[in-house]
Every structure is written in structure tokens, then in C-alpha cells.
Amino acid sequence: MSDQDQLKALRVRIDSLDEKILELISERARCAEEVARVKMASLKPGESPVFYRPEREAWVLRHIMEINKGPLGNEEVARLFREIMSSCLALEHPLKVAYLGPEGTFTQAAALKHFGHAVISLPMAAIDEVFREVAAGAVNFGVVPVENSTEGAVNHTLDSFLEHDLVICGEVELRIHHHLLVGENTRTDKISRIYSHAQSLAQCRKWLDAHYPSVERVALSSNADAARRVKSEWNSAAIAGDMAAQLYGLTKLAEKIEDRPDNSTRFLIIGNQEVPPIGDDKTSIIVSMNNKPGALHALLMPFHENGIDLTRIETRPSRSGKWTYVFFIDFVGHRHDPLVKSVLERLSQEVVALKVLGSYPKAVL
């Protein structure tokens, strides 16, 4: 058989497989519609249906990656199935998700990575606005940044948890690649200022010191706002990601300029529903302690004695008094695990206040 005949046979086989894939996706979508009908039929008077189940979505993606035999990698397979699930869920009930805007931010990219592109994503001007929209029921979920591997905690998010009673339903980890972007009218030899978010400028500090040491660095509310400004200016550049570059039609003058190649940001999914365990969970709490010697030691000992892995601990000023603090703690396990439940009960007897922000599946990717 000639090469052309082999190619023709392979293309016929691919066409046949595509038809089968389409048939299976359509069958899955019909099942999703039936799930919605069953949920609606089983509601009691006054109850609201719960269409999106974070633990179910996380389990499906983990299961798919476990049985994946290639040649596509786990990340690509998970991305494909996320989009299928997103589109099927939209048939049941389109989700509204608020994120720290404007369009083109890394937070929007995190929202789409977690929920897929079939959601209705709504940009908010500030982190606290995202919290307020979720608390008011105007959206189903919110997505906010909480920490960066280079620059640490996002304090606005931590402070918002002190003011709002919302539940953490999930987390997203996003690799952050920064690019130096210019517009079609930019005179690249005359760049006199570089716009970006303060965190992004900090994450690219060494690169900027080496390549643009005398250029003014202007911090804005978001990378997307930086990209928008550059589009209409001839003497400026922006530091932003792929999404902003595509949205505003900018060109990459330099790619991946972040100081650390493993630069990542963790985002939290906030909502109003508690999430059951899946066996690979994390829990976040806020603890307020009396300001006395050994307070932090007493706080951490129950975790150490029970072999519970702490993944993060942050301190923020308390709103209740001068020179008093609260601790934000993340650890492995679910609040309903017997061991975790025992530790939380012990802590509640020793601290001034304990608030469980939520237990949720670990980030899939």
C-alpha cells in the first residue's frame, strides 16, 4: 500500500472515530439533561436545586487521569473532559462565576481552567466585590487569588474572609507566565514606562533590573488594565499573560520574563455550599489566639501530635484590637475526617475563636 493510500485509510478511520466521539458526547449531554429533570422532580417545597457538585467534578477528573493510557498527557485529557463537563452542566443550569477583573486577568484564566468556558464569567473591580456578589446570591461562585509562590499571600483576599461568611469550595493552581507586551504603535526603542499589577512587577523584578533598569514601573489594578493602556500609547509596554495579549491584540516583545520559572498562583473558589470529602482534601481555618507567650506553639501542637500536614500558615492583624492577630491555616484533610474533627474540637477549647472556612478537593492540576 502506498503512502497516499495509508493516509487515506487513516483519515477514513479518524472520521469514523469522530462520529463515535460526537455520538458519545451527545449521549452524555442527554444524561446531564436527565439529571437536571430528576433533581428538579425530587425537590421539596422551598428547596433550591444544587446542579454543580465540586466533589463530583474533582472525582471525575482524577478518575480520568488515573485510567488515562496516553498518548495524550493527563493535563490535556483533564482539560478536554473539563470542557465537556462544563458544556453538559450548562444544559442543566449555566453557572455564574465572578472573578477579579477586568477581562484578560490571570484570575479569569483560573476561573475558566476550573469551571470550563461554558460558564458565565463576570469581572469585578475588586476582590471584596467578588465576595459581595457571592454573598448576595447574584452569582453561584467567585474566584479570588490567595497566594503566589514568589510573592506570598494576597492580603486583600485574607482580609475579605474576616468580613464575609462564605465557604471555600475548591482551589485552582495556575502557572503564571509573564510577557512584555507592546502595541502596533509602540516604538520599542523609546519605551519609558512599563505598566502592570504590583505583584507582577515584583515577580519580574530581576528581569526588569537587567533589561529596563531606568524605565518607570507603574503599578495598576490589573495586568489586563495595563494591556489596555498600552494599546493606545506609543512609549509604553505592559507585563501581562497570554489572555490579555490575545484580548487586546498585543505583541510579545519578550516571553516568560518571570524571575522564577515555577512561578504559580493559587486561587480559591468561594461559594455558599459545603463540599463532601473525596479522600484527597484540604481544609482552611481562621484562628484567633490570646496574645501570650507560647500561643503559636499551643496552636500548632495538636496538628503535630496527630500527624496532620500543614500546607500554609499566614498572620493578619485582627479587627478586634491593636497588636492582636489572627492565623490563616491550610492543612491536609477534611473537616469531617475523624482525626481532623478531633483536632478542631480540641482547638476550639483553647483558642479565642475558630472559624472553618471550608473543606474542599485539592487542586486537580
From TrEMBL:
It comes from the Bacteria. CDD domains: ACT_CM-PDT, PBP2_PDT_1. Keywords: Amino-acid biosynthesis, Aromatic amino acid biosynthesis, Coiled coil, Cytoplasm, Isomerase, Lyase, Multifunctional enzyme, Phenylalanine biosynthesis. The record marks 265 as: Essential for prephenate dehydratase activity. Signal peptide: none annotated. Pathway: Metabolic intermediate biosynthesis; prephenate biosynthesis; prephenate from chorismate: step 1/1; Amino-acid biosynthesis; L-phenylalanine biosynthesis; phenylpyruvate from prephenate: step 1/1. SUPFAM superfamilies: ACT-like (SSF55021), Chorismate mutase II (SSF48600), Periplasmic binding protein-like II (SSF53850). One of its GO terms (biological process) is chorismate metabolic process. Its EC number is 4.2.1.51, 5.4.99.5. One of its GO terms (cellular component) is cytoplasm. This is Bifunctional chorismate mutase/prephenate dehydratase. Residues 7-34 form a coiled coil. Pfam families: ACT, CM_2, PDT.
